[in-house]
Amino acid sequence: MKHIQIPHSRIDELRIEFDKHFPFFDDFQWQSNKHYFKKVFNMDQDSGIQTARRRIYGPATELVADSVKQFGFDKVERCYMKFARGYLPIAMHVDVPAHNLKEDGWSIMIPLTFSNNIKTIAFTEKVTEPIFDYWIESQDWTARQEKNNLREKFSLENAYYLKPEIIDYMEVDGIGEWLKGSVFCFRRSNPHCSTNFRTLGLPYKDYIIIQTDDRLHGSPR
Ligand SMILES: [Fe+2]
């Protein structure tokens, strides 16, 4: 994981853009696993919005690209970028595209909600399995050594609700902070997840996500 700091004034500008676009968010991901709701959030619910998003087009593209220029990627303004509001902390997953599992790159996140209780945790494994749960099931977890004690510090039962303890056996690549001006990126093929901010009193988190393709945008400095 790589980190940069950007000015608070720029975050304020991005927040204005986010709010302007929010009424037009048109890309919704749903969580419909009722066992997950019960076990992770103690909610009696069958489904709910996981994330609401909107692709960034037009003048905002340049502003977002300029905000992350310190990383040193090429032509960021041509990357796939989205405004997003996450209502439910995401389970562990990878960001490699299902249509081309060999296409790797970096996921850049610009947090627009700030709290010490929100973290994005990336792990060092490289996974190109289209269904992430299949990768989890294919691992011999009993043969692994314990690698971290994150679950003592953070609420992470959302990472893999069937067996939250697998987190202990994964090596941490980095922890992204959700503090004003913090921006971070990690490999799209690295498993990552959020802390369970819902049970810590936060109803949602806002952010901008940018996805690079190594062949077109290169690597960070
Ligand atoms: Fe992701």
Q: What are the defining features of this structure?
A:
Jelly Rolls, binds fe (ii) ion, 7-stranded antiparallel beta sheet, 221 residues, globular, alpha+beta
3D structure, described in words:
The longest helix is centred in the N-terminal third of the chain and has 14 residues, at 8-21. The chain has 221 residues and is of the alpha+beta class. It has 6 helices and 10 strands, in the order βαβαβαβββααββββα. The mean pLDDT is 95. The protein has a 7-stranded antiparallel beta sheet with strand order 1-8-5-10-4-3-2, with no helix packed on it. A 3-stranded antiparallel beta sheet has the order 7-6-9, with no helix packed on it. The chain has helices spanning 8-21, 34-41, 59-67, 132-138, 150-153, 214-217; strands at residues 2-5, 27-31, 48-55, 80-86, 106-111, 119-123, 172-177, 182-187, 192-194, 205-211. The protein has a single domain (2-213), classed as Jelly Rolls, CATH 2.60.120. It binds fe (ii) ion. The site of fe (ii) ion (FE2) has 4 residues, from loops.
- Coarse shape: globular
The portion of residues forming beta strands comes to 25-35%
Q: How large is the radius of gyration? A: 17 Å
Mean pLDDT: 95
CATH architecture label name: Sandwich
Helix/strand order, N-terminal first: EHEHEHEEEHHEEEEH
Query: Would you tell me the structural class of the helices and strands?
Result: alpha+beta
Total strands? 10
Low-confidence segments: none
Bound molecules: fe (ii) ion
What is CATH's topology name?
Answer: Jelly Rolls
Provide the fold topology.
Layout: E1 2-5, H1 8-21, E2 27-31, H2 34-41, E3 48-55, H3 59-67, E4 80-86, E5 106-111, E6 119-123, H4 132-138, H5 150-153, E7 172-177, E8 182-187, E9 192-194, E10 205-211, H6 214-217
Antiparallel strand pairs: 1-8, 2-3, 3-4, 4-10, 5-8, 5-10, 6-7, 6-9
The protein binds fe (ii) ion (FE2).
